[in-house]
Please model this.
Amino acid sequence: MSKFIAISATIAAVALVGGTYAITKLKTPTMAQCGATAVAGEVIGGPLELIDKTGKTVTDTDFVTEPTLIYFGYTFCPDVCPLDMARNAAAVDILAERGVDATPVFITIDPARDTPEIVGEYADNFHEKMIGLTGSAAQVDAASKTYRTLYSKQGDDPEYYLMQHSTFTYLVLPQTGFVEFFRQVDSPEEVADRVACFAAAS
Model:
């Protein structure tokens, strides 16, 4: 009788664990449920090698250690970049309130003016966690091509020229890589919701 009770208890325990696993499995979102963006014919993301605010060469493995929002812009940008950067910073704060850690990253597409010190100060002004990155013209061009962004210099003024550029923000996860991009119309709350979903699914 005691043997029967022991076997029954074991079966019940296994069933309980299995049931708990099934419930957990059902409650865990998949990448597709988070709104993963399909980009036909394109492979976005990959290795990066740039320079941080201290002048040190870093790679994506150094700074993509948690859900990371990557934005390509430039510090002389008069309107679009500050709005997008502020939105990304606000999304990171919302995520922090929900217990989700995320890192905002700014990569310049204007290395001629944006030195390591300048991009570092620029990023710090938006968020204490924001990482500012620059590099040689070749490094920046390689990073831009890796994420399929576009940029070009506008005007002939050697000092006060503007840059035309893509304005997407890219969500990159450790081990997984690029999973989603955000447009200017996406609010901080919308960005935070989707980042949190991907973080839970990864």
In short: The first strand starts at residue 49 and ends at 51.
